[in-house]
Amino acid sequence: MTLPSHEVADLGLSRAGVRRVAWAERSMPVLRSVRARFAEEQPLAGLRVAACLHVTAETANLLRVLRAGGARVWLAASNPLSTQDDTAAALVSEYGVAVYAWAGMDTAAYDRNLVTVLESRPHLLLDDGCDLVNTAHVDRPELLEGILGGCEQTTTGVIRLRRMSAEGELRLPMVAVNDTRTKRMFDNRYGTGQSTVDGVLRATNTLLAGRTVVVAGFGYCGRGLAERFRGMGSNVVVTEVDPVKALDAVMQGYTVATMDTAAPVGDVFVTATGNRDVIRREHLAVMRDGAILANSGHFDLEIDLNALDALSVAVDRGVREQADEYVFADGRRLLLLSEGRLVNLGAAEGHPAAVMDMSFAVQALTTEWLAKEHGALEPGVADVPEEIDNEVARLELAALGVGIDTLTPDQEAYLNSWRP
Fold first, then answer.
1. Which residues bind substrate (predicted)?
2. Distance of alpha carbon 340 from its chain centroid, rounded?
3. CATH code of the domain occupying 189-346
């Protein structure tokens, strides 16, 4: 077997990667169902797909679906800390994916790998954080030729795409996979909530009961964080800039405060806003000794790392795995997790496979839809068709053995008529 082009840490890890991928597959019945149909119908035959995604076992199962559907796939990592080297090896040697990813790569290698997968001249993009789209538009616009469209699966990425579209700069149709009801409910809320708590616990082994946890942002991810930390017995404080979201948090029983107010009283801080400088110099300067800093937003900009460096007189790198201790002149110590990158993927394993089953099923079905309907789409941000979202939910319910009611003809008629 001729291996696809690749740059990974060690192909010798492939066997362990196959075992990891198979373990994740056990919890991904919806994706298995989609893969079986794709293998029969070949909806992606002849298409090239470039992806910038977390290189994990769950992602591997998504790419297996695309390969079963006839696509050739090139993959770059969307986060150097989340790459599973054994999964990367298995994707190359067992599943025929061209992979350019290894754990701990530097920024230069990260950027180079994005260009490499774009140089495959893809027809479709699968993006995470808008990095592929941004690289193609800003650095290598000639590589946009031939790209039919793509999918974006993160809140941060959709925000960037909508801004590009509003400024007339987006030259591709991109589908906001992140904005589906199943993605927001299952992935953002339950997945991010559980995996972030998991990351904090793995990195610190701290007791959360009775601690004050400050959650920055009360979007879908922030709600999941707040729920899970409260479930662990924490006193949760929410910070927000959106008055409606802040009111929602108040009505759910959370304390809502400004970051200025929360900074001196928090024991654990977790950001999930999609914005930058949420925790700034003035906040770091008043935090209590031993405060833990973690981020669940896509980019490592939510905590002002330059200010953290400037305020510290010493740094103990790796005081625990995925934890760096910053010492201030007055003796206070702040603990930064996963270098300020996604803590749920840096310090833990990301979302459970059962969560990614639904998110990646939406991704796969949307890729199929794009392959068929791209000619009818204009450059800009499009929504996932509602029938795809509903189909994924139906498949998941069937896998869980859950039945739901259907509307009777009279109910259908009533809902579709304004007459008494």
1. 56, 128, 183, 187
2. 15
3. 3.40.50.720
